[in-house]
Design a protein that fits this description.
The complex is a heterodimer of chains A (about 325) and B (about 425). With about 325 residues, chain A is mostly helical. Chain A has helices at about 5-10, 15-20, 20-45, 50-75, 80-95, 110-145, 150-180, 185-210, 215-235, 255-275, 290-295, and strands at about 285, 300-305.
Chain lengths: ~325, ~425
């Protein structure tokens, strides 16, 4: 009996990057991000003017994590393992570095370096994962001889939308961390969360109403709006003691944890309500088959055929 | 919907909050905030848009090992999809020869896509192509939205039909209509049968003038009668017929034998009936022609190894509708049915010529188990099963059935030839009155 296609595929090795050159871009950027994440994992320990010997474990782990990540980009059989190990080792490198933050203080440079590490760690991990997926898809396209298969669209989408999405993520993260300063005033905290809820209510209900589900949209708006207004009104009458604002816990890393817990718990609740009532039905159209309609449908599109040429127009790998 | 990565980010976000607190690390806490923000933001970025779809297939009816070309057309009538995974679901028995049924693509508004792929169907059956599954991911693969397009097409894969030249299996009670089966009786036909004395009324053109000149008596030539013959094929599709692997079991082999025999008899202008029994009893009345051939092939394609109808009951229910004294070709593995002997005895009592093709399930199981454990063919269990089967076969022969044991390693044509020889012997024995 003939072997199944997957078995046959497994026995053939192809060099995807020679055919889909966009993958190289992911590899180069990813390596750069991973290297930066490795350096930023131990750099604050050195910049803080601390003992070099105490910073050594962090340096070793940072370099090892960075190398693991880079190996993941260039050695395919080890990629899956490195995808798991490199981020973990980099986190360990951060965790073991000597304490520089003080309870009762939170300086901007420390926050910025932390954010830079988080961003590059995230980018390194995402690019490594993306590389793994793109190579698999590209390999499949070559083995199945899919002419005209265009991976560059997917890669470009990843690069452009990836950065845009990351920008949005960083903004949200900064917003969460920024809550620390907001929370120094109980009144401002209540106002802030109230306004945030009102904004969420309006935006969420607009989303729901766009899918022509007006009743659900109205219910959602009312529920979130009322909660938001209640918080704002409560804020008007609260006695602002600033006891919490002056606390050592708020003015240190613990403050970030508190802000994060408050923000994400609140958002979790709002999203639970949103998903419980939002219509999530996608529109699908089934077209009865006819040769004319098929031609019409494909008039301006991609055709993935299986002629004997290589996809991407490259030479045989 | 959450991907594994989404769950990983969520758990890492929560764990890193605590780890960051334990190590008093600003970087880890910021990282945890970043991961949780990723979850918050990306869940709004997986969208499926509005997709129109259509599938074209080169053929909806093929024979085993046949190739079908599938064209799947999709048009994005909504917004840009970003990462869109498309999978045209295929049954596991179908093999992709060229092209792909799975793709990741970024479809822009009003952009269309045609996925073309060729598949091979090595095993008979009625298969469903589809539905088409669409899965849209956000750019970081944290969330996905999945949608099934109910675009389903059926493909019937008929059992493979081998070409056979001749099989001396025919009914002892022919019908009046002229056919292609020689029935060893004088009558209308094309081949010489015997010479007999002239009787008034015989046409002059039949007088053998050479014999008259030689003997002085008026003798006439008689041709061998060629008539339509009724053949009944019974296929055992009980659950035990599925013993073995997906591609090697008694039902698959039996279906091929039944299809080959049907094709041969229909070409010979015989009338063929089919009875498939398993969970239910399916019978197709005797008839001739291409329509009958395809009706039988479709029934064979759709036969599934299910149920456990006793063969005796099947014989009792079907026999009143079976043409008298016609050959009954029974294809069964004979396993797990204590009524086999009674069934054969019953059919023989009603003067049906029973040819029993029996693909051995023991051999099929052995074939599949040999891959897993060495020396299984020398095991005591195998020997005992073989012995039991040999005794059963001997018993059935004792009742006058022509039993052909079918070793899966032996090609089908050799088995059918052996069945025909066996039938010939049985027919001769019957006419001579010796059923031993």
């Amino acid at each position: 009996m003939a072997m199944v296609q997957d078995d046959l595929d497994a026995k053939v090795t192809v060099n995807v990057e020679t055919v889909f050159r966009e993958i190289m871009l992911v590899k180069v950027f990813g390596t750069l991000f991973m290297a930066l994440a490795g350096v930023l994992a131990f750099l604050p320990a050195l910049l803080g003017g601390g003992d070099f010997v105490k910073a050594l474990p962090s340096m070793v782990l940072g370099v090892v994590g960075m190398l693991m990540g880079i190996i993941g980009f260039f050695v395919r059989p080890m990629r899956r393992w490195m995808l798991l190990l490199a981020p973990a080792v980099l986190i360990a490198a951060v965790a073991v570095r000597p304490l520089t933050s003080q309870v009762g203080s939170l300086n901007a440079s420390e926050l910025l370096l932390g954010l830079a590490f988080a961003v590059f760690w995230f980018l390194g991990l995402e690019y490594l994962h993306a590389l793994m997926r793109f190579v698999e898809v590209g390999e499949m396209a070559i083995k199945r001889k899919l002419t005209n298969f265009n991976l560059s669209g997917v890669v470009k989408h990843f690069l452009s939308y990836g950065f845009m999405t990351l920008g949005l993520i960083v903004m949200v993260s900064l917003g969460v961390i920024g809550l620390l300063w907001l929370m120094r005033s109980a009144q401002m905290t209540l106002f802030g969360f109230g306004v945030m809820l009102i904004a969420l209510g309006v935006v969420g209900s607009l989303f729901i109403m766009m899918s022509k589900d007006y009743l659900k949209g109205a219910i959602y708006l009312l529920a979130v709006l009322l909660s938001g207004i209640a918080l704002v009104v409560f804020g008007l009458f609260v006695e602002d003691t600033e006891l919490f604002a002056r606390s050592a816990e708020l003015n240190s890393v613990y403050g970030i944890a508190v802000a994060s817990a408050v923000f994400f718990t609140l958002f979790g609740l709002v999203l639970t309500v949103y998903y419980a009532i939002a219509a999530t039905v996608a529109k699908v159209e089934k077209v009865e088959y006819s040769r004319e309609k098929m031609k019409e449908m494909l008039a301006s599109g991609q055709v993935l055929d299986f002629e004997q040429t290589q996809p991407g127009g490259g030479s045989s790998p | 919907m959450w991907t594994k990565k989404g769950w990983l980010y969520l758990s890492m976000g929560v764990v890193l909050t605590f780890v960051g607190l334990v190590f008093r690390s600003t970087a880890l806490l910021v990282l945890s905030v970043l991961l949780l923000s990723t979850i918050l933001v990306t869940q709004f970025f997986s969208r499926l848009g509005k997709i129109a779809s259509m599938r074209e297939m080169s053929s909806e009816k093929i024979f085993e090992d046949g190739i079908i070309t599938v064209d799947l057309a999709l048009v994005n009538k909504g917004g840009r999809t970003g990462f869109l995974e498309i999978r045209d679901s295929l049954p596991k028995q179908i093999q992709i020869e060229e092209g792909t049924n799975y793709l990741i693509i970024d479809l822009r508004p009003n952009e269309s896509l045609r996925m073309r792929y060729r598949v091979k169907a090595p095993i008979r059956g009625i298969y469903e192509f589809g539905p088409v599954t669409l899965r849209a991911q956000d750019v970081f693969n944290v969330f996905y939205k999945e949608l099934q397009l109910e675009l389903v097409d059926n493909v019937t894969v008929f059992p493979i039909v081998y070409d056979i030249k001749d099989l001396p299996i025919r009914s002892r009670t022919p019908k009046l209509f002229p056919g292609a089966s020689k029935v060893k009786q004088p009558g209308p036909g094309s081949e010489f049968f015997l010479i007999r004395n002239y009787v008034p009324g015989d046409p002059f053109k039949n007088i053998n003038w050479k014999a008259y000149a030689r003997t002085g008596d008026l003798l006439v030539n008689e041709k061998e009668r060629e008539a339509v013959s009724d053949i009944v094929i019974m296929l055992d599709a009980r659950a035990t017929s599925g013993t073995g692997t997906l591609g090697h079991n008694a039902l698959i082999y039996g279906s091929r034998a039944a299809a080959t025999l049907t094709n041969f008899f229909i070409k010979r202008r015989d009338s063929v009936a089919l009875i498939v029994f398993g969970e239910k009893l399916l019978s197709i009345k005797p008839s001739q022609g291409t329509k009958q051939l395809y009706e039988i092939l479709t029934a064979l394609a759709g036969a599934e190894p299910n149920g456990n109808l006793p063969m005796k009951g099947v014989a009792e229910v079907s026999s009143p509708y079976m043409p008298r004294r016609s050959p009954v070709i029974l294809i069964s593995n004979l396993d797990g049915d204590p009524s086999v002997i009674d069934a054969i005895s019953f059919l023989r009592t009603l003067e049906f010529d029973v040819v029993l093709l029996t693909p051995s399930s023991i051999e099929f199981e052995l074939m599949s188990r040999k891959r897993l454990e060495a020396g299984v063919e020398r095991s005591l269990e195998y020997e005992v099963l073989r012995l039991e089967r040999d005794i059963l076969v001997q018993d059935l022969r004792g009742y006058g059935a022509s039993v052909v044991e079918w070793d899966p390693k032996v090609p089908l044509l050799a088995i059918l030839l052996s069945a025909a020889q066996s039938f010939g012997r049985s027919e001769f024995d019957h006419r001579g009155g010796d059923w031993s």
